[in-house]
TrEMBL record:
Domain of life: Bacteria
AbiEi antitoxin N-terminal domain sequence ranges: 4-51
The organism of origin for this protein: Georgenia wutianyii
Descriptive protein name: Type IV toxin-antitoxin system AbiEi family antitoxin domain-containing protein
InterPro entries assigned to the protein according to its UniProt record, in alphabetical order: AbiEi_N (IPR025159)
Amino acid sequence: MDRQRIEALAARRHQVLTRPEALAAGATDRELRHRVSTGAWQRAYPGVYVIHSGQLGWLTRVSAALAHAGPGAALSHSTAADWWFESPATREQRVGQPVEVSVPARRTVVAHAGLRVHRRRPMPGVFHGLVAAVRPDDTAIDLVARAATDDDVVGILTRATRRVVHPAALLLALERRDRVRGRRLVLEVLGEVAEGVESPLELRYRRDVGRAHGLPAADLQVRERLDGRWVRADCRYRGLGVRVELDGRLAHPGGRTDRDTWRDNAALLRSSELTLRYRWSHVAAAPCAVAAQVAQALRRGGWAGTPTRCGPACTLAGA
């Protein structure tokens, strides 16, 4: 067995080697069985080996799945989303998640634990880099098509556009699909994304608090320098001295941070702007009360308008 050739072949696929490659490099089936039985190598799938005994990193796991799935296979759905939309450190935390791959419909791949195979007709566009993966725009639409809730759809689209996908590319990907559940919602959300919405919580605030109660439009995701640092405000009512920061788990997993506190203080000292801070429970469960509080702050800043009730059951007046 030519060890140098074995290592060179495996290095191209993140330490993954197939049985035909090993045999072509001079190995025998007996040698392959011996290396697995002694723990020097690991058998990821039938005929697919990892040529070390340590823990499998994310790239090694998905490369083994692609090698098993065979020609034309590509990472897709949640696994492709991890590749396109997450950092390497976050991907490594997905150890227990199944690997999802898509293959052309004419092919059949044997299912295994920890592997989900999608047979596609037609096969979406694939990008071939370190790994083969369905393009990011098609990946986002794949996830939208199986999303359980509207908030999930918003989260998928804002996650995609925040990282690598332009809203126009998502619109084109949507047009290429005959049927996508929630198509109207996708079009609506992409319009909001183009105006600066970056999370489900921001969309709920903009729709259920601001628009529904007739509040003035706020500028979204405003970047500016305060005390020599670049900071960003979720919502800023320019000229009215009010900022709104939305702290939900999707956007700020740890809640309020030291940086948040510093930013609020710097804004107050520089421009006397009041910062109102709301969490998911406020915006989702009590949007009328939030609107009443924001309206009160805006009036202090000089807003001459009057908030409106969002419907017969609106509690704006009582709040």
